[in-house]
Amino acid sequence: MQDLLHQIDNTRLPRHIAIIMDGNGRWAKEQGHDRLYGHYKGVESVRNIVEGCAELGIEYLTLYAFSTENWDRPEYEVVGLMELLVKTIRNEVETLKKNNIRLHVIGDMEMLPQHAQNELTEAKEITKGNTGLNLVMALSYSGRWEIQNVIKSIAKEVEKGSLSPEDIDQEIVQKHLCTRNFPDPELMIRTSGEYRISNFLLYQLAYSELYFTPVLWPEFRKNNLYEAIIDFQGRERRFGKTSEQVTEPVGSTPNP
Ligand code: IPE
Ligand code: IPE
Ligand code: MG
Does the beta carbon of 68 lie inside 6 Å of ligand 1? Predict the structure, then answer.
């Protein structure tokens, strides 16, 4: 693991890493357990990866924890996941505070049970003065839900007369995203061998480098994170230009 760590160029780290934490159910099944056991084990990976990102000095880590579509899972799983969320936030908030990590949440908070909303609001409040890693939890989130809201709120401004349709540009769109205060992810990791986006950050991933690994989320650890970063650092990010035109080193993004 130290070996992998030494291969990382600390001057070219991604500022923002986004992860689709997938494979909890399959991992549990492999072990002969219920799906919820996989979700419980997945929390250990979250802890390990948050710690790994904080140690490296990554500025933003977005974790896709529950999608809009996940509400359609069997009720016992949804209820179990919500309980796990509340319990985890409660258990981890002091560690977040101590480690200078600031918690953010993106997604349709109103869909969450009231006690989960309260727990999250409190944890955000407790960590709001922290200046280290920004940990962004995507909960009841989907890219299409977000884009729909962006359109609604821009339409309201037009209706009010504070914005004219001609003035709508990418800067305005950016200002209405849930991630308006964060740069776009340079690196998006998905575990469990699935090669899809599953309605994650559809707008923000436009130029992200995508990294797919067969490792199931409950087994994903810092060494896997390091491998993903090393792979990222070996890529040439062209943003539509030719290879010759690109002189900037990997890792620098023309983000707002
Ligand atoms: C990811 O693991 C966690 C959530 C979507 C909440 P899954 O529960 O999707 O696990 P698999 O994909 O069924 O193995
Ligand atoms: C994506 O995983 C959502 C999260 C990890 C929270 P899913 O397991 O829900 O995605 P699909 O159904 O395989 O596309
Ligand atoms: Mg899955």
Answer: no
In a domain, 119, yes or no: yes
pTM, rounded to two decimals: 0.96
Domains in the chain, number:
1
Helix pair angle (75-98, 114-127), 10° resolution: 20
Is residue 69 marked as binding?
A: yes
CA angle 129, 83, 104 (to 5 degrees): 25
Residues with active-site annotation? 22, 70
* C-beta of 70 in contact with ligand 1 (< 6 A): yes
**Domain residues for 218?**
11-142+185-233
Ligand 1 atom with the smallest distance to the CA of 216 is 14
Q: Report how far ligand 2's centroid is from the alpha carbon of 39 (Å).
A: 13
Give residue-wise pLDDT tens across range 208-232. 999 999 999 999 999 999 999 999 9
247 domain residue, yes or no? no
**Which CATH number does the domain housing residue 32 bear?**
3.40.1180.10
